[in-house]
Amino acid sequence: MTTIPLLALILLSFSQAPESSAFLAPEPLKNPPSVCDRLTFELKATGKSVVQEDDVPSTVTTSPYNCVYAQQKRRDFLLRSMAAISFSAVLPSNPTITIADDSGVPGADYLYTRGSTDVDGDLTSRMFNPDGSLRDPNVVVEAKSRKVHLPFSTMSSDDGVAISISTDGVSSTSSVDSFNLKATYNLPAKWNYDSPDIPLYFDASEGKNGKACNRISVYSVTAPNLSMKTLEKASNVGVAKSLQMDILPGKYFDQGVLKADLISGRTTRKPIRSINKVNGDYDEQVYYEFDLAFAPLECPSFTQGNKENLGLGFCPYDNIFLVAATVLKGGEKDENGTLMVCVVECNKDEWKIANSDLKRVRSSFIVERV
After folding, report:
1. pLDDT of 182-220, one tens digit each?
2. Angle formed by the axes of helices 64-89 and 35-46, to 10°?
3. Rounded Cα distance, 100 and 107, in Å
């Protein structure tokens, strides 16, 4: 019987067959060989040379020689790139840049030069002012001003105290007849000073259109024992009291200034002719500048129409005094000193309109010997 040996032979052939996947359809290769790879393989299989004697192929066709030539070109490009990278690594990191100056001669010592601020300058100078603000040809960069000159004296009266007050550029009657000092301050030219048709110190410039200042006063007090120490102790004793505001006739200033808060203070130095007048020598005169502010004595509630009273127990500042003061001695044997004070007064609305101009007026105050 040949049935059993035949069955065993069939089973033996199945046991030696490959795994079941061998009976599946073949999957496509993920990275199939390129045309050049197949041609190169065929050249190697046939034993032909893969080196072409010609330098460059005459036609661009897919041939074994073109494939070998392209591979050699790629290798040459990679080698040259690596050599260039290695060479650049030894170069200095900050190469020197040479540009030509205005005469066209190269080798200038600068890389960039800011041009002048006129129309022939560079783009930055034409667009911006030196302080960084945007340039506008219709806006005057430098503020124009007018000077106000006032005469004063260092001589005292019989009672030992001499007071002289000038209000808004007009001198009042003084207890002395001779003058040996001149006080000066600058007013912005845009403020009204001469026309009676509009308010004094009215600023009609664009964006403001309102009164910029309430009053500008300059006064002098000549009395014994007045010196710079009086101003040095002002922050401790009280600024208004040190400036003799409490003895001015007729309660010249709002008495709220006696309890005003000192917001800020500083000192400046300005030249003044020496009292000896030797060869026109000049000395340095120290000026004290104080920013004072105080609230009104009565503060209406919010329900009474005061929108700034928020019920916090106090009212916002309503009066601002910008003060500049100095003391001059009459001579080596003269015990009297002359206190010179400039006060720029404004309210909160005027401060919002012209605070920078108000500070410039105060800082322009200077006293000269004549």
Report:
1. 999 999 999 998 888 899 999 988 778 899 999 999 999
2. 110
3. 6
